[in-house]
Amino acid sequence: MKQGKRTTTGLALALTVAAALGAASCTSSQGTGASGAAATAASSAPSAAYEQQLTLAEAKAAYATYLTTSDLAARVGDESLALSAVTDAAADTLRADYSIARASDLGPPFTRYSYGPPTYYLTQPAGAGGPWYFVVSVTRSSVPGTTAMDASAQDAAAGVQLPASGTVLLLFEKPTASGAWQVASISQMAPGESVPALATDRNGYVITDSMNGAGPQLVRPALAPPLQAGVVDDGPDSPAAQVVASGPLTTGLYHIGATSAAGIAPPSGDVYQWLLEGSSYGRLALRTADGGSLVLYTMYFNLTVQTKSSLDEDVPVASGPPIAVPAYVRALLPPGRPAPTTRLETQDVLSFAAIDPPAADKPAKIQVIAIGGGLHTAMAS
Fold first, then answer.
1. Which is higher by pLDDT, 322 or 43?
2. Separation of alpha carbons 304 and 77, rounded Å
3. Residue 5 domain-assigned (yes or no)
4. Which domain, by its residues, includes 100?
5. Does the global pTM surpass 0.90?
6. Residue whose C-alpha is closest to residue 279's, from 185, 171, 153
7. Is residue 353 within 8 Å of 187, Cβ to Cβ?
8. How far is CA 319 from CA 89, 274, 335, 344, in A?
9. Quick one: which H or E segment has residue 41?
10. Does the pLDDT at position 197 exceed 70?
11. Residue 181 contacts residue 170 (beta carbons within 8 Å)
């Protein structure tokens, strides 16, 4: 990252990449449109050992409830109703969207979607008492004539431009057996990408991999996020680029950051920084049929413009020229305040899907294939 902090130190990232390379060298519309082994097998009567586990019927019902609830909320502009259907990253970005819509005097109907036949991927709970997860892959298209919940400049996902129609991955989460199913994240596939074939057990459930467990993958699934961050922060010259493929969601995000993402540009003399960093949101690794992992995770994308005096923590801090604030960012700041002269910071919450390939595939690199989310917070001084 030019002029900024790093997600990891250069040495730590280099060691992570070296470990990955070492491992590689040693290791030989709603309805019944479900497809794939997971959906097919789970639709049959479960064995006694699985009686308390997720069934395809339950997943279909949860998906149908989400579609109905989110569509009604978009039609009438009911924030509380919309939030009842989501949690985690999906909820955080949705709150920001409603705040932007209110500040920008935008009214419903907000963006509505039409959906194709879904594919369901059911998993076993992590242990007694959950949490439970399942994933829906479905083609989604925005309905013409509805209003985007932003001020026309709001980035869908840190400035990454995605088509109005594409395949999305909806990660459903239920924290306990008595809890409600909610969507934790929504990530749209980059053009040309698709969900890889996933491995299932004898009962039809998709096998999950330990995030920190060593397996046949190129790296432990938990390392996919920081390795992606290394490329986004430092570009193609990052050591992480040895194991992370270039593309719109890796080197592309680096170039977006380097060219003043989302319309945020520094005045002369100020410092501009960007940083992709880890978060405490849940993560999930699904085993692919070839022995790799499809890793779902969420990260923060931070943009900062500030004076050199504030960066150096001088006392007193010297202000600089006014920092231009894009309309969609201004909507999240207290109304009536003058343009900031010391610091402007924004944070996006971004959900990703990445393929951590089998180490035996040569040359093997992590492919980041989907992104979702958007603006979360903004601060200025």
1. 322
2. 31
3. no
4. 10-380
5. no
6. 185
7. yes
8. 34, 21, 21, 12
9. helix 37-42
10. yes
11. no
